[in-house]
Amino acid sequence: MLKIEDLTVEVNGKILLHDVNLEVKKGYTNVLFGPNGAGKSALMRTIMGFSEYRVVKGRILFNGEDITSLPMDERARRGLGIMMQRPPDMSGIKLRDLIKVVSKGKKDPEALAENLNMNRFLDRDVNVGFSGGEIKRSELLQLAAQNPNLYLLDEPESGVDLVSIEQVGMTIKELLEEGVECPGESCIRGKSALIITHTGQILDYVTTDRGYILCNGTIMCSGNPLKMLEEIKSKGYEECLECKLMK
Amino acid sequence: MQTDEVNLKKRAESAAEKKAAFGEDFELGKFEEGSRVSKPIEDLQTLDEESKRTLFQVGVIPSEEGRSGSLLVLDNAVSHSSLKDKNIELTSTQKALKKYEWLKDYSWKLVAVDTDKYTAKTYLENADGYFVRVPAGKKSSMPVQTCLMLNSKKVYQTVHNIIIVEEGASLDIITGCTSRKGVEEGIHMGISEMYVKKGATLNFTMIHNWAEQIGVRPRTVVHVEEGGTYVSNYICLKPVRSVQMYPTVKLEGKGAVTRLNTIAIAHPGSELDLGSRAIFNAPDTKAELVSRTITIGGRIIARGEMIANSKGAKGHLECKGLVLTDKGSQLAIPILEANVDDVELTHEAAVGKIAKDQVEYLMARGLTEDEAVGMIVRGFLDVGIRGIPEELKNEIENTITQTAFGM
To answer: Using the beta-carbon criterion (under 8 Å), do B356 and A82 form an inter-chain contact?
Structure first.
């Protein structure tokens, strides 16, 4: 579904990511680990197409199509959706109106908000005065309205209190499993995802397939996400360079 | 003639050539006096379709549905006045002055006749306009609507309005100021004196919709007594040559409150010099002045001024301006003045382009760049008119969407 090949990205003339290779197959939920400042959010935002990230080498393929230079709305229309960590305040734009526009009027904001316990936020300005947990729920609500095929989730658990984390985790699980098909024994989830996590808490709620560690602007290794998480928890990212061995 | 009047006349005459403090100076001699006589219009629905549309675009409903009463001024003549709600009084200023001896204590008591040539002219012309009064404790069930229309080419219009909301009473009023289609040049001078008495509320909404060569010089002063509330919404979204105004609210009684909202779009060739001023003359008075302006090629000067002369005064001034093209300009001038201690005046001013992160946030959700900009701009202006009647808001949003941006 998503394939990143030899991607090198600069911001303000400075190389932030180099020679990144990564893949998310259809129905897969992959995880991106890495220390602070490694470039995880930058990679995700480059995939979505934010203009400050300039691709100087390599390409991004989505469903086989090269989307490296497509405008972000085109990417969204092809099925990419992002949950941002620090979305901007959208003064004057009510969450209800945004949901209507994003779902092209096809979904009822009230019903969508019900699931996320966000009804009382529908008439508030998007992100204005929202707490950390409210921002996450609002992002998920917007994604539910958008209904992408590939979810880019940037630290869905950060800044969320322990009570809300279950709600956020369960909602993500539901979104990703929409349209699940189980031919024979193995199930193929309807949606794909790339999740950035720092704490790994989200892995308690969603089944993941493959993990990547991003260090110093490039992918150092990939493997079983749960094992990687254990390794990171015990040794930290000091092992970044050594983790090449895990390949 | 009484000495008062003689004095006023003298002062007005001496100010006949006095330039206004701000804005382009118009030579009034170049314009003809707008007609003071007009055939009475019994029913606004009998107007031609074009005129009805003109009224509608400034929030004035020809069928008068949902309105307590209506008054229409064409050039310098009151040509329609009707009233459904017997809780209020609505008539022409000149008729009211004849009827009520006491009204002279209100007329030209807030706006100084010698403020500038425009106030002087309006006084010397003995201008007519609308008079609205709500007796103590009464409430208008629906808004009153008034319309001031420039009806003939290259004329000047002088209007004098007086609003009195007596103790504990409440009034919503919508004033549409506009020009008939085809009238592209002219001058509108409008004096408004408003009195909000103890515990009373006045919600005043004014929509301007002029043409490219029209000069507009409203002069408004509002007097608010103890516990009174004055809310104003000013909307100007269409091309005009020059609007210059600086409505002033004097908070004269303990706990009086005001909120002035302004939303405006400056088209190429337009200069909008829009101020608002709150003067805190009594303890614990509050004011909020909010201005949201956009230039798509014209010049905007957003002035805001708060003068605190009494303890416990609390005010916030918010001027935000978007510049959507290199050809336009925005100038924000906030002024805060505290003359006693124990007051709190704050301001927030920002001018510039639309934030890119906001546009991209919406684009990441699948909106095109144009759709994203449109939504942000509507939201930007929307903040400036929160609290106005819903139906009017829809009309304004439609105007923003269709006319101003051609979307």
So the answer is: no
- The answer to whether B357 contacts chain A (CB < 8 Å) is yes
Cβ–Cβ under 8 Å, residues B222 and B247? yes
Closest CA to B246 of B105, B392, B112: B112
Nearest CA in chain B to A147: B365
How confident is residue A236, by pLDDT bands cut at 50, 70 and 90?
A: confident
**Packing angle of the helix pair A95-102, A109-116 (nearest 10 deg):** 110
How far B74 CA lies from chain A's nearest CA (Å)?
A: 37
CB neighbours of B6 closer than 8 A, spacing ≥ 6? none
In this structure, are residues B223 and B196 in contact, taking their beta carbons and an 8 Å threshold?
A: yes
Q: Are B334 and B349 in contact (CB under 8 A)?
A: yes
Long-range contacts of A110-114 (CB under 8 A, 24+ apart): A112/A141, A112/A144, A112/A145, A113/A141
**What's residue A245's pLDDT?**
43
List average pLDDT for each run of 10 residues in chain B, which is 407 residues long.
Answer: 84 96 96 92 93 91 93 96 94 97 97 97 96 96 95 96 98 95 95 98 95 97 98 94 98 98 94 97 97 95 97 96 92 96 95 94 95 90 75 73 54
Residue A57 in tokens: 């080498």
Element (H, E) at A137: helix A132-146
Angle at which helices B369-384 and B390-399 pack, to 10 degrees? 140
If phi over 0 gives left and psi between -120 and 50 gives alpha, with beta otherwise, what is residue B150? beta
Q: How far apart are CA B360 and CA B365, in angstroms?
A: 9
Chain B residues in contact with A81 by the CB 8 A cut-off are 364-365
Contact A151, A173 (CB under 8 A): no
Residues 6+ apart with CB under 8 A from B177: B58, B147, B148, B149, B188, B190, B206, B207, B208, B209, B210, B216, B218
Backbone angles phi, psi at B192, to 5 degrees: -130, 125
Q: Tell me whether residue A123 is exposed, middle or buried, using C-beta atoms within 10 angstroms of its C-beta: 0 to 12, 13 to 18, 19 or more.
A: exposed
* Cα distances (angstroms) measured from residue B90 to each of A147, A221, B14, B173, B193: 55, 80, 33, 11, 15
CB-based contact A29:A207 (threshold 8 Å):
yes
Report which secondary-structure segment, H or E, holds A30. Answer: strand A29-33
Token pair of B222 as six digits: 């509002």
Q: CA-to-CA distance for A181 and A196, rounded, in angstroms? A: 25
- Give the 3-state secondary structure of residue A86: coil
CB-based contacts of B339, cutoff 8 Å, min separation 6? B307, B308, B309
A155 close to A198: Cβ distance less than 8 angstroms: yes
Question: CA B220, CA B202: separation in Å to the nearest integer?
Answer: 14
User: Which of A93, A104, A130 is the best mutation test for B, with the most CBs of B within 10 A?
Assistant: A93
Q: Give the residue from chain A lying closest to B368, CA to CA.
A: A73
Token pair for residue B339?
């003359």
Q: Which residues from A are below 8 Å from B373, CB to CB?
A: none
Residue B369 near chain A (CB below 8 Å):
yes
How many CB atoms sit inside 10 A of residue A131's CB? 12
CATH assignment of the domain containing A106: 3.40.50.300
Query: How many contacts (CB atoms, under 8 Å) link A and B?
Result: 66
Q: Which domain holds residue A165?
A: 2-246
B212 touches A: beta carbon within 8 Å? no
